[in-house]
């Protein structure tokens, strides 16, 4: 099977605590290496997680944005992290039920005795957390120094002037961004510059009943054939499960189809490119599956919890979900399919296999009074030592390739030692990288849902998305 190596510009570490909330770090409760802002466990409410909440007067692009960053940096010249000055930083992120954050912060402070890090817990709902950041940063608040951000936030926060550009730090300290998975780097990049460092990642997988089929389908056409053939085997009711409810998870599922067939929503220059034959083909394939007899009749209500509940009860042969579900399949308290589940790359289309990218980044408040020390914390958390702690203590998937060769990391979770899982992370497809992503997501959700329900054709849905996205970008 051809694996998609390039990262598409049309762009979840799901923690079990956040999963039932439908999207979780809130972060990243660093629980199972899964995120989800896409129905995973970030519980992303795109209606509340929006660029329309940003202060329009705070938007700064081009030279103005550079000047703001330069000013913030100039004010702190000579304030090196290692100069012995006692400094207190505030690090904000969502609830972490695993305790990994405490271990991470303690390890950093042990190596940097002049820096004290105070932890501030943000709301568990990602949309609420997003809005709280926007409120504080648009007012120029200096309280928070470093914070965790969903992979869909960097472009919005960069354009609004909320965060520091990181290129000067990266270049000065010789950090090779090619050591990170390409999709995670792409998510932190906007307007040719780096605004966020990848902290942990996530990507969609295809789960299948190994007691029913010997191998996973290599293509979406094979999945359709096998779902029809094996539906009903071993007491199953359905051939395939997916996330088709009208929410962020629907967008991620669609992005996976678009990526597999060579389509993208928005290119790196913010041109709307969704109206293409490839996009129509991709959506038609998604519609064929959603409207088939081998999915539940209420598939348009399915999110991640509905998917894993049905699959763990033995109701389906195949299911698309995030990595968090792997551990659940072997949990005797919740799974009726123990020992009979394996996973693989999502099926390929005409352009290869593509998995939706999730995860969390770390960023620096542009108004931080201690940018040098803030960078040291951010660099530690997203570097090899910090990510190893997060992987071992919190079960979150690293964004650094080298850590998947580390024996301690491999022992922390079976997925981390699985080559196919690492390959999935390599070919993860980001959602559209744009400062107005929440608006784009809303537009896509509406038209995708209308198409899957049979109200409009694939061509009409694609044309509507193109028109509405172009209008939103022009505002």
TrEMBL record:
Protein name according to UniProt: Carbohydrate ABC transporter substrate-binding protein, CUT1 family
PROSITE patterns per UniProt: PROKAR_LIPOPROTEIN
Family affiliation: Belongs to the bacterial solute-binding protein 1 family.
A GO cellular component entry from the record: ATP-binding cassette (ABC) transporter complex, substrate-binding subunit-containing
Annotated signal peptide: 1-21
Chain residue ranges for the region called Disordered: 25-82
GO MF annotations in UniProt: maltose binding
Classification lineage: Bacteria, Bacillati, Bacillota, Bacilli, Bacillales
SUPFAM superfamilies the UniProt entry points to: Periplasmic binding protein-like II
Gene3D superfamilies for this protein: Periplasmic binding protein-like II
Residue stretches of biased makeup (Acidic residues): 49-82
Low complexity bias locations: 25-41
The keyword Zinc-finger is annotated on this UniProt entry: no
Alphabetical list of Pfam families matching this protein: SBP_bac_1 (PF01547)
